[in-house]
Automatic annotation (TrEMBL):
Entries under InterPro entries matching the protein: Diverse_Catalytic_Enzymes, HD_domain, YqeK
Keyword Metal-binding (UniProt): yes
Keywords noted in UniProt: Hydrolase, Metal-binding, Nucleotide-binding
Highest taxon listed in the record's lineage: Bacteria
The protein, known as: Putative HD superfamily hydrolase of NAD metabolism
Amino acid sequence: MITEYDTVTREVRAKAKSMCSPERFEHILRVERLAKRLSSIHGIDSSGVGLAAVSHDMFRDQAEDELMRLAISFGIDMTEMERVAPVLLHGKVAALYLKEEYGVDGDVFQAVYWHVSGIPGMSTTGKILMISDIAEEGRDFSEALHIRETAEVDLEKTFVDVIRLKITWAVESDSLLLPETVWTWNELHGGASHVFN
Ligand SMILES: [Fe+2]
Ligand SMILES: [Fe+2]
């Protein structure tokens, strides 16, 4: 399986390079680098994490109508927000591309599919991807530096910080919050049991 992932990763990396702007592709490579580093620090198989990282934004620079077309062809049941802002679909489209082309499923599929918003029950692969996406070395704001440091020590706590940051940004910039991000936040805070106990 590891060898299989490595072969797919090489192919997907080349495809991502051909589909993305140079800046986007550099971001993808930096996410891959940090994600693999965090995997080795925490003793997690880095080949699945690496594949999730190289594929997560491969469709990020596609035109809106192309993302919509792909989403429809993959049978994605689009939310109202995705219909209005098709860029939100780039993770789901990438995950379904991986599944269709290479049979990728499980944690890698879930990580790529939900990397924009998060989702309750995220795997460690998904958490490492979201942490690396927000805190790769090209991100030079103070929160990113902090996240890079704490991620080496505590992935779970750092993931809470990532979700907090996404929510804070949305609130501070008067943007919409993706419901899945809120569900993830609530899950990380004990969900309904926390309210009633
Ligand atoms: Fe993305
Ligand atoms: Fe990204």
